[in-house]
Specification:
calmodulin-lysine N-methyltransferase activity, 3-stranded antiparallel beta sheet, methyltransferase, CaM-Lys-N-MeTrfase, about 325 residues, about 25% strand, globular, nucleus, alpha/beta, SAM-dependent_MTases_sf
Length: about 325
Amino acid sequence: MMKTDSTTDSKQQQIEIGLRRTLARARWHILAKVFYEGLEAAAPYDGSVRLFNGFPLITLAAIEKESDQSNGNESNVWYKVKCQGSDEVNLEIRLPAGKIPFAEILVSRDSTGAICIWPSEKILGHWCLQNKPLFNGKIVLELGSGLTGLSGLIVASTCNPAQLFLTDGNPDCIDNLNLILARNRSRFISKDIPIEARQLTWGQHEDYQNLIGSIDVILISDCLYLENCHINLEQTIWSLLKVNGKCYIIAPSRNQSFEKFANLTGKRFIVQHEENYDPIIWSMHTTYLDERDRYQYSPDRHYPLLMILTKPRY
């Protein structure tokens, strides 16, 4: 008996649902490893969505450890940021070394930015370093800065922005960002650049009321996987940007979440998206593709695309 189209569609839907559940379980595995064993345990493991080690464009070298005064355990680690092929970046960032309390993971709507630096953040930082004129003299805001605001810090240290905002919805991230800013102030291209870390939840206008229509450039990395947040993110970008302002987003397709956000923003933004946006990253990508079994490389999850949103004048 021949299978009907409806039967085939049903089976395809079941496959897609199964894939989404597998990826969700893998992400929770990473969070659980952090909960039980600390941040270093979030390294790639067999079957994880993080098995691929990422693009080695920005690396971190531990330089100082902090201890928890209450128990003497290692609590945070300061790292030196190293950028491939560039001596311009002289930054130090701070990441937790210990376990993340499970309650924090459950209570926060999205705690993934508060446990580690994800690959797209490093790629966005590299891309900013290669495109410094885009930020010269501009008011720049990073959405979803996470614990380190890595891309924003690179802009502050090499691109001479007029002003910089690092934002995240998680207050623990803001506390950590303020410590990083205090430590790196002398390392920025100008000590006079106004830089602020502030809590900003997408869609909550009271968090950014005084910034509406004032931002030249917005930076975002890997913030599209939560599709239920797309509408609030789009509204926030639209509210913040000046007319002709631009938003640069680096994120993998990840089950079409990138494409879905592009379709949503296309209703009122001018949208461009590029696959080959940097020769170094593209060269690495093609190498990984040629040996994908060796690297456990899946472009859908691992290769970030570039989306550029421009706010038009109506």
